[in-house]
């Protein structure tokens, strides 16, 4: 059973636990000299070399269908670049797919965890999981409707996937408890809310009114996810911080 309380243990990462070594470490740091010639400018120069001829992180795929080519033209006529819109739709699509998997893993952790006072019920997590899947499906249909390929990883999808790596590691790690995993989910929901908001604005600006309405609906659901996760994390943290009542003496 996964415990939600953080206990005193054998954490030896701090220097104070070993006063003798502490003195030596500080002395060592004060007298240490670099093991090779050069200073921080070398890394700046190396970075500058890479930045001079940067490789980009992917590109947008060309429209694979006549419909896709037509929607690109229409969006351009309306004054918005279809590539920017599709790049961001692709990013949400990838993120919702990951989100569904994160909640799937969180459900497993919920089942293996001791009760978390102030935390979610199983049905709450199931509902969010379901909605993340629905958002993914809706985005896939939107992509297909625009003649775009929903299996393509767009540049923004790539960036968001790399940024989310840490969240996947937290939730996938059995040593991270339910509360700690909810803290990672909170990061995902915060990002997701920001991105859905801009995506809805983009759809409106591109004149995709029906799509914008669907996105607005998803945004409302995401706002509720965020409010719930915020509350669970807050309640669980405050509850954990409360000293335990001593058992009454007999
Ligand atoms: Fe989401
Ligand atoms: Fe969400």
Brief summary of the model shown:
This protein is mostly helical.
Would you mind describing this structure in some detail?
- The protein is mainly alpha-helical.
- The chain has one domain (65-241): Ferritin, core subunit, four-helix bundle (Ferritin).
- 68% of the residues lie in helices and 0% in strands.
- α4 (82-112) packs parallel to α6, α4 packs parallel to α7 (165-172) and α5 (122-145) packs antiparallel against α9.
- The longest helix is centred in the C-terminal third of the chain and has 33 residues, at 209-241.
- The radius of gyration is 24 Å and the shape is flat.
- It starts with 18 loop residues before the first helix and ends in a 9-residue tail after the last helix.
- The mean pLDDT is 91.
- Residues 96, 99, 132, 135, 192, 222 line the site of one fe (ii) ion (FE2).
- One fe (ii) ion (FE2) binds at residues 96, 99, 132, 135, 192, 222.
Mean pLDDT: 91
The tally of helices reads 9
What's the CATH architecture?
Answer: Up-down Bundle
How many domains would you count in the coordinates?
1
Distance between the termini: 31 Å
Q: What is the helix content?
A: 55-70%
What's the SSE pattern? Answer: HHHHHHHHH
> What compounds are bound to the protein?
fe (ii) ion
Low-confidence stretches are: none
